[in-house]
Amino acid sequence: MTASSTGPSPAPAGHPAPAHTATTSEPPPGAVGTARPRLEGTAKVTGAVRYAADEPASDLAHGWVVTSTVTRGRIREIDTSTALAMPGVLGVIDHRNAPRLDLEAGPFFGPDGGLHLLQSDEIPHSGRPIALVVAETPEQARAAGMALRVTYDEEPYDVDFRLEHPDARPATSFFGEDATVGDVDTELAASTVVVDERYVTPEVHGAAMEPHTATAWWQDGRLQIIDSNQGPFMVAMTVATLFRLEPKHVRVRSAHVGGGFGSKSGACGPQLVLAVMAATVLDRPVRVTLTRNQVFQTVSMRPATDQRVRIGADADGRLRAIDHTAAFEVSRIADYLENCTELTNTLYAARAIRTRRTAVPVDILPPFSVRGPGATPGSFALESAMDEVAERLRMDPLELRLRNEPSVGPVSGLPFSRRNLIACLTEGARRFGWAARDHRPRRRKEGHLLVGTGTAVASFGAGALPSTASITAETDGTFTVAVGASDIGTGARTALTAVAADALRVPPERIRLLIADSDLGPAWGAGGSRGTTSWSWAITEAAAQLRSRPGGAALPLTVSCDTTESLGRLPLMERHSYSAVFGKVTVDPATGEVRVRRLLGMFAVGRVINPLLARSQLAGGMIMGLSMALHEEGVRDRATGRHVNTDLAGYHIAAHADVPDIEADFVPDYEPGDPSGIKGLGEIGTVSTAAAIANAVWHATGRRQRTLPIRLDRVLEAHPPNRCHEPAG
User: Fold this and answer.
1) Once rounded to an integer, what is the mean pLDDT over residues 233-254?
2) Which CATH fold would you assign to the domain 158-415?
3) How many alpha carbons lie under 13 Å from residue 123 in its C-beta half-sphere?
4) CA 103 to each of CA 37, 106, 115, 337: distance values in angstroms, whole numbers, following the listed order
5) E strands within 570-711?
6) 406 with 422: CB under 8 angstroms?
């Protein structure tokens, strides 16, 4: 879009003054800070919204993904004769005839072999796409795909992830270095209490409701794409790089997304790479939709982690040392960083802090970001260990956390832009009734059930990343706001409309918002809890430019801005959102069943744009944390190296019914570095919830759970109390 443009004629005579000349000093009611239902809500619940698989296309063909049945090896032969002779089949694309890709392509962590599909006969992991069968109908494509005959030369594989793996190596520091502050070993030796424990989390999948879908076709020399993703502009750039195209020749749209949780972020999914290949080879529109099973096999997941945490403290609870070593699995064909030590570097004051991140290459699908990457499994380890320190000191775990509040970044030494964790803790404790808690374990019972409560805190990086936006003052007094945002079900349309109305000093009804199109210009995706902050910053800057224009200018009038320069002027500070989560559980020691009775979360997330949608996001995040704590576990068969629970029957996720009482609320907060005062809140709800629940399970049972999920067999007691004679307490 141009920096500025004018229409062919001024506003019609008698037309009201252009809205951009409004002089109201305060935003009108109904903008930022007011609870409003999402703009597309009615359309969604009535089925009017079209997701990626719903968009109509003429002359559409359908692709079926064929995946490997071995974990590692090479393809000896693919016999396509039967499949090609079947009704409706248009072609089979495999490593012998697929378009050649740029094998150096990879948007974040260097060359990504997960994107380099159908480029060789190599099978680097189970479920690797090895062919795409294209036919006139989805049923014909599937039938032909099942008829494809493939033989392999199998090779030994290794999926045995562990901290002591012989191939373990220091993780690549894509952002943030490993930390060493003070003398950890000396401080540990001088500590009154030392906790030294291991904490393990499994592979976790995004499990979004909408399976991944892409439709690709060529039109007037441009590659047109409709895809389910979390950042159309970044996906368009990745496609252009992979297929050696000029960026201007690729357009990606992603109007509505049925959840992502990281599984649709990053570069692009296998469905898109294969759809573009097929559209190029066959010269017609092709749609590729993954089945639920294929999503689990071919789409990135959170890697398993194995973490050792050592914490030393004095008798009064002051921390002397924190030593956090975090190992995580990576694929041999792509690098990645699961930054589990992020919270260790910023949450607590200690004389000495040491963090180490270790990557363990194994023969798996390349992992990627899922629901608070790094921070979420790292929080489980750190906050469980903090609870263990409190236990050994016989101290209130909430008091232990308050006693170790830092004044500056414990590792960076930088000032905090605004740190509001204490308010989250104290207000959450008041509402939860924490003061009445007996901090000794296994003291409270309801009949045969053991009752426990627990807490955990978290921070999550806040701030904005460079994005562009444009605003057009129209002749009818409305404004068209264009930004390459993505709404993955979070309500971004509604939030950004409020931000634009607030910035332009007009009612939201005068805003027309355009998003989810790579043609709208560079913009950060919906990831890292930085989407809304990045897009809002760009909108706010564009609005300020428009409002500064003198009145009487010819309409329509468009201004555009790029926030790269203004972000570069920000002073160097630690910028975070904060949370404190409190949980109440019951445990049946005879069956091992854990039930979460109550979750309460207090959050410092800057200025809240829409309290209704924000509470919904945070409650959903806490439910995801519960799901991680009690249910979610990607399981591999060690004999085959393949996932064994690749559906939502075997891979269980929590739902609202799993939490009878859930509350999310905010403490007053404001981010001084942001023109709107906002912070991201997409992932902070998830980060500390699993630790809070694990701590509550310890409080109920007196047994520490250091491996997630907290399954029945891990809680079951060999000799539970006699139900018939156990008094209620």
Assistant:
1) 96
2) Aldehyde Oxidoreductase; domain 4 (3.30.365)
3) 29
4) 45, 8, 9, 20
5) 576-588, 593-604, 661-666
6) no
Which pLDDT tens digit goes with each residue over 295-337?
999 999 999 999 999 999 999 999 999 999 999 999 999 999 9
DSSP state of 364: S
Catalytic residue chosen out of the listed positions 203, 210, 663, 683: 683
Domain boundaries, the chain: 4-8+29-50+464-568, 158-415, 418-462+575-729
The predicted pLDDT at position 551 comes to 78
Q: What is the 3-state secondary structure (H, E, C) of 41-100?
A: HHHHHCCCCCCCCCCCCCCCEEEEEEECCCCCEEEEEEECHHHHCCCCEEEEEECCCCCC
Task: Give per-residue pLDDT as tens, 38-63.
Answer: 999 999 999 999 999 999 999 999 99
Q: Which two tokens stand for residue 422?
A: 């204490």
Average pLDDT, the chain: 92
What is the per-residue pLDDT for 103?
86
Q: Cα separation of 304 and 301, whole Å?
A: 9
Dist CA 483 CA 467 (whole Å):
8
Q: How is residue 356 written in tokens?
A: 């180490």
Q: Do domains 4-8+29-50+464-568 and 418-462+575-729 have the same CATH topology?
A: yes
Domain boundaries 418-462+575-729, CATH class: alpha beta
Q: What pLDDT, in 10s, does the model give residues 487-529? A: 999 999 999 999 999 999 999 999 999 999 999 999 999 999 9
Identify the residue whose tokens are 């924000």: 614
The one-letter amino acid at 177 = E
Strand stretches in 155-260, DSSP E: 169-170, 180-181, 193-201, 213-219, 222-227, 250-253
Rounded to whole angstroms, the Cα distance separating 21 from 18 reads 6
| Residue 23, both tokens | 């002089």
- pLDDT bin (cut points 50, 70, 90) of residue 359 is very high
Active site residue 683: yes
pTM of structure: 0.93
Q: Would you call 701 helix, strand, or coil by DSSP? A: helix
CATH no., domain 4-8+29-50+464-568: 3.30.365.10
Q: In sequence order, which ranges of 175-328 are alpha helices (DSSP H)?
A: 184-189, 232-242, 270-282, 292-298
Give the pLDDT confidence score for residue 19 in this predicted structure: 34
Sheet holding 661-666, edge to edge: 444-446, 449-461, 576-588, 593-604, 661-666
